[in-house]
Specification:
The protein has a single domain, classed as P-loop containing nucleotide triphosphate hydrolases (Rossmann fold). Helix content is about 35%, strand content about 25%. It is built from twelve helices and twelve strands. The chain binds adenosine-5'-triphosphate and magnesium ion (MG).
Length: about 325
């Protein structure tokens, strides 16, 4: 299934205060594609994913405009009941912290089988058999013991795998992974990334993979969208983005990646931070931190422009020769 987000614009309203979290997001994740959404903390990644899942409470959230389609299903116009069905059957999500998502009082087996029984109408025995299969798929062999374990009896990496097992139990067609490896050490991180690639190959799931770290997404992504202050500022195939980054923000994010050749040199950190959603600078939101900014950047917001087929960026000076 293909996921398409069109001009999604979302605010949090509290009294007379408005936090403008998403300012016209456009993004397409093709069937079976792994599309990464990358940006620093506070840029709008989680608001995007929870909005797709229909998990943003309104109020305080106000969807100002925009549409989200899963193939031809208009997700934002569904009733709550239909949204719940889609969440169980078609779209699944894994989160940064499994501890928050797993129910500490229920055995892992019950947490996997309950959705199989509820959504797929399986018998308890059939659901338990399927749960064992799924646990093997996510690399939790010796499944019987895991089925009877409580979350606190599992290590961090096992909990993350158990959460992925629950997420994929009903054969979702689309997976959202919101920083699923951030809390893990490097070895476990690599294992979970391999698992996500493996699942895409086995199940042809489209995946929106969220991370603040371009290093993490390098191996798994087909396409990458870079998000800054609630807007996509660059969208490209992974290969193109790493070879020819266009937006100054993407370039700085890439420079903060240590690579083997440059070992020993200091990492660049980008001075300043993502603006608060209540206080987005006028013009290009990145201008206060941008080494190339000129007067126009403070006044006029640059549009996304396609510079090469499938490679777009939003910057007044992309393609002008000023940014080499
Ligand atoms: N419940 C809320 N009320 C008000 N503002 C919010 C709320 N949730 C998020 N925001 C604002 O929306 C913006 C985007 O937040 P979001 O959580 O999507 O960032 P993120 O990219 O996921 O960051 P991180 O990498 O830290 O997870 C931030 O400015 C944040 O302050
Ligand atoms: Mg987040």
């Amino acid at each position: 299934m293909e996921l398409t987000i069109k001009d999604l614009d979302v605010s949090f309203i509290q009294g007379d205060r408005e936090a403008h979290a998403l300012r016209g997001i456009n993004l397409t994740v093709g069937k079976g594609e792994i599309h990464s959404l990358v940006g620093e903390s506070g840029s709008g990644k989680t608001v995007t994913s929870t909005c797709i899942m229909g998990l943003l409470p309104s109020p305080p959230v106000r969807i100002n405009k925009g549409e989200i389609f899963l193939d031809d299903i208009n997700l934002l116009s569904l009733s709550e009941e239909d949204q719940r069905k889609i969440r169980g059957m078609k779209i699944a999500m894994v989160f940064q912290e499994p501890a928050k998502y797993l129910n500490p009082t229920l055995k892992i087996g019950v947490q996997i089988t309950e959705s199989l029984i509820l959504h797929l109408g399986m018998s308890k025995t059939a659901a338990e058999e399927k749960a064992l299969d799924i646990l093997t798929t996510v690399g939790l062999g010796g499944g019987k013991r895991i089925l009877h374990s409580y979350p606190h009896e599992l290590s961090g990496g096992m909990k993350q795998r158990a959460m992925i097992a629950i997420a994929i139990s009903c054969n979702p067609l689309f997976l959202i992974a919101d920083e699923p490896t951030t809390a893990l050490d490097v070895t476990l991180q690599e294992q979970i990334l391999e698992l996500i690639m493996d699942l895409r190959n086995k199940l042809s799931m489209g995946t929106l993979f969220i991370s603040h770290d371009l290093r993490v997404v390098h191996d798994i992504s087909d396409r990458i969208s870079v998000i800054y202050a609630g807007k996509i500022v660059e969208n490209s195939s992974k290969t193109e983005l790493f070879a020819h980054p266009m937006h100054p923000y993407s370039r700085l994010l890439l420079k903060s990646i240590p690579d083997a050749e440059k070992r020993g040199t200091r990492l660049v950190t980008i001075p300043g931070k993502v603006p608060d959603a209540e206080n987005i600078p006028p013009g290009c939101a990145f201008h206060p931190r941008c080494p190339f900014a000129e007067d126009i950047c403070k006044i006029e917001e640059p549009e996304m422009k396609e510079y090469q087929e499938g490679h777009s960026a939003a910057c007044h000076f992309c393609g002008t020769g000023k940014i080499q």
